[in-house]
Design brief:
The chain is α/β, with parallel strands linked by helices. The chain has one domain: Rossmann fold (3-Layer(aba) Sandwich), CATH 3.40.50. 46% of the residues lie in helices and 14% in strands. The protein has a seven-stranded parallel beta sheet with strand order 3-2-1-4-5-6-7, with helices on both faces. Strand 2, helix 2 and strand 3 form a beta-alpha-beta unit. Helix 4 packs parallel to helix 6. It is globular.
Length: 256
């Protein structure tokens, strides 16, 4: 029996009127999240370093694109501020931007470590602070969705810096939920497993896909749409009482 995927299911309109910013939204999971949000009626702004792809996505969806280098704190602050101003406020922040590199533990350099954390974690702190201040000032609450990883829970050989940065994302999400809940802001993170995106395509072989698929009871890897569907749920009123969680989107590779 072939199980239905997210793309086989009808689209609903839970996000009409929501003003949403997606970082790292020009391609891969971020672009699919932006597409799903737009299809559910949200007004979306995408932040990304990839200007050509970001502009193309904006043309496709009718959304807004703001170029940014997330390793530049001042630039990130300015870009998110412009996005919030363009949208007229912010209801949902999706911290999706991230990088993945492989290196044996004993070969990771301090520069590699710091770059991984700069993009995967530090930029998330900067955007979370700015978005949360805007949400608090508006007095209407809001939603923060962070993209972590299965690696943030399980680790992974060759992923010392990546896994550590994603574990930090999980911890930051929980602290965000604890501190901002009184202001009506929820914070959750998504922990995908293996997802078929452009980021890993250069090093992914057919044998890899077959092996990794065998780890899931569903017998397949995730498509970006599988993650986008969970993000849309978290952004909607259906998840209003859900906060501080790290949701596994791993096809059952992790069951807790």
């Amino acid at each position: 029996m072939t199980l239905p995927t997210v793309t086989d299911r009808p689209t609903i309109s839970r996000l009409v009127g929501k003003r949403i910013v997606v970082t790292g939204g020009a391609r891969g999971i971020g672009a699919e999240i932006a597409r799903r949000f737009a299809s559910e009626g949200a007004e979306v702004a995408v932040l990304d370093l990839l200007a050509e792809q970001g502009s193309a996505l904006a043309g496709e969806l009718g959304c807004h694109f703001v170029p940014v280098d997330l390793t530049d704190t001042a630039g990130t602050t300015d870009a998110l501020g412009r996005a919030i101003e363009t949208l007229g406020g912010i209801d949902v922040l999706v911290n999706n931007a991230g990088i993945l590199r492989f290196s044996p533990l004993l070969e990771i350099t301090v520069d590699e470590w710091e770059r991984m954390f700069a993009i995967n974690t530090t930029a998330m702190l900067v955007t979370t602070q700015l978005a949360a201040r805007s949400m608090i000032a508006a007095g209407t609450g809001g939603t923060i969705i962070n993209l972590a990883s299965m690696a943030g829970k399980t680790g992974g050989a060759g992923q010392g810096h990546y896994a550590a940065s994603k574990a930090a994302v999980i911890a930051l999400t929980r602290v965000t939920a604890l501190e901002l809940g009184a202001s009506g802001i929820t914070a959750n993170c998504i922990c995908p497993g293996y997802v078929l995106t452009e980021m890993g395509a250069a090093t992914r072989t057919e044998a890899d896909v077959a092996e990794w698929s065998s780890y899931s009871p569903l017998g397949r890897l995730a498509e970006p749409a599988d993650v986008a569907g969970v993000a849309a749920f978290l952004a909607s009123a259906d998840a209003a009482y859900l906060t501080g969680q790290a949701l596994n989107v791993t096809g059952g590779m992790i069951m807790h």
